[in-house]
Inverse folding.
């Protein structure tokens, strides 16, 4: 293994963790952290409700509640949803907000500082790009986009505005202390030289076809706006009711690698300091023109960087899982505290979701709240491991939403900014391109092209309905 993580790599990791580096104020809210942001909440049901709580809307914005102790937050200046019932419920809590059913009209409101996007996946890239083009900061639920090209354009739009606005993708576990400790351990050499990481999630979506028409939509639901830029499909309530309803369809989502892959592969990207891959191959259930694969396995190749050699990343979903060293399960069950304060837990065999980092001197098994270290030999053989000093620990996050709020007000960056998150989502969605193309892709990331597979081009991009512009 090359040298363990040094000062420069630590700073890179810290910035990726959401360590705010203050610069002069960059938003219309001004320089003071006490200033309130004027926020637009686009998508007010489901994740929209959770994100409303995350930005801590204060009573001054019209929040109706009886106990105001400790309430602080931002001004909710606009609410937008294609469902007028959900919009009406939110409006009762925020009577001072302007109301919209079309997010394009919402973004034209002149007093906005930033946007929280909690819509369906197929509109994420549009809202992200349109908002940034108008100088607005963006907090967006994962994934940022629904195609490789969309992820690239979201990232490029952010980079054009870097230093002028703040962005954050909603991978909330990125803000956890457990993720920070895992990043430190891997980069410090706790498993020796990293070789690969295997990542999995046990969810298995249904197959099938686009749903049949069942009659007109309710008069309170703006179905054409729900469809948005995607090809038209007739109304069917089976598309509604959460991401597991609609994200299995190609026109509306990207399956489990788009959904849970955003969370699980996030930790692999951060810990191994990954960028864009040079190759990708994927296999899955029989291709279906309507729905994403019920199960998928994928492999990406990543080049060496200045602290580690080339590595491979593997993904499994829909019930597929990697082989697991028996030593991990044996020792993890012996104790809930596995040496040197390294946290263990009672493990299920096999875990429903997780990551297995492999190095030349051991393994690390990880999940949201789990990290189990198993050296191949005695711990003294971990030649390259050096525990970080207190001043070299990646700082704790003030909270995933709070990182973004602080960056909007005072400048700086966030852990899942659209540069980092754009690369992550582009990486993940490339697996679906390889799956649909049916062969290994030699990936020219600079030109967004598979050099050995011209037929992959049609899966890199999406087609949109007339009247919808991605870069608007």
């Amino acid at each position: 293994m090359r040298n363990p993580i040094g000062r420069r790599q630590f700073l890179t990791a810290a910035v990726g963790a959401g360590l705010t580096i203050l610069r002069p104020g960059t938003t219309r809210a001004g320089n003071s952290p006490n200033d309130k942001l004027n926020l637009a909440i686009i998508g007010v049901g489901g994740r929209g409700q959770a994100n409303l709580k995350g930005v801590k809307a204060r009573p001054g914005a019209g929040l109706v509640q009886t106990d105001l102790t400790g309430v602080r937050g931002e001004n909710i200046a606009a609410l937008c949803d294609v469902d007028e019932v959900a919009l009406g419920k939110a409006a009762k809590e925020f009577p001072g907000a302007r109301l919209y059913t079309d997010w394009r009209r919402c973004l034209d409101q002149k007093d906005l500082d930033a946007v929280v996007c909690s819509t369906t996946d197929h509109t994420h890239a549009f809202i992200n790009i349109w908002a940034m083009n108008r100088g607005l900061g963006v907090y967006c639920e994962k994934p940022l986009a629904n195609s490789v090209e969309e992820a690239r354009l979201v990232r490029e739009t952010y980079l054009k505005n870097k230093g002028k606005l703040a962005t954050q993708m909603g991978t909330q576990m990125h803000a956890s202390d457990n993720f920070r400790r895992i990043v430190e351990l891997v980069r410090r050499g706790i498993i020796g030289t990293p070789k690969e990481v295997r990542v999995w999630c046990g969810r298995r979506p249904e197959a099938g076809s686009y749903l049949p028409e069942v009659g007109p939509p309710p008069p309170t639901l703006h179905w054409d706006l729900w469809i948005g830029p995607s090809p038209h499909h007739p109304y069917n309530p089976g598309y509604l009711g959460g991401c597991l309803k609609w994200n299995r369809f190609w026109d509306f989502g990207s399956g489990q690698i788009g959904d849970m892959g955003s969370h699980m592969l996030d930790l692999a990207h951060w810990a191994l300091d990954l960028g864009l891959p040079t190759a990708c191959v994927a296999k899955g259930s029989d291709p279906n023109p309507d729905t994403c694969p019920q199960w998928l396995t994928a492999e990406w190749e990543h080049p060496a960087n200045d602290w580690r050699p080339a590595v491979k990343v593997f993904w499994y979903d829909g019930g597929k899982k990697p082989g697991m060293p028996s030593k991990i399960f044996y020792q993890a069950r012996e104790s809930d505290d596995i040496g040197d304060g390294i946290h263990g837990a009672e493990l299920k065999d096999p875990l429903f979701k997780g990551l297995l980092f492999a190095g030349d001197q051991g393994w690390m098994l990880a999940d949201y709240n789990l990290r189990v270290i198993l050296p191949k030999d005695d711990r003294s053989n971990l030649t390259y491991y050096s525990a970080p000093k207190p001043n070299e620990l990646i700082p704790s996050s003030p909270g995933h939403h709070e990182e973004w709020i602080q960056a909007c007000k005072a400048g700086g960056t966030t852990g899942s900014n659209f540069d980092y998150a754009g690369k992550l989502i582009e990486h993940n969605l490339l697996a679906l391109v390889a799956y649909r193309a049916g062969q290994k892709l030699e990936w020219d990331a600079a030109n967004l092209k598979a050099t050995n597979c011209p037929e992959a081009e049609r899966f890199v991009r999406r087609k949109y309905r007339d009247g919808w512009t991605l870069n608007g």
Summary: Residues 148 and 426 are 5 Å apart (CA to CA).
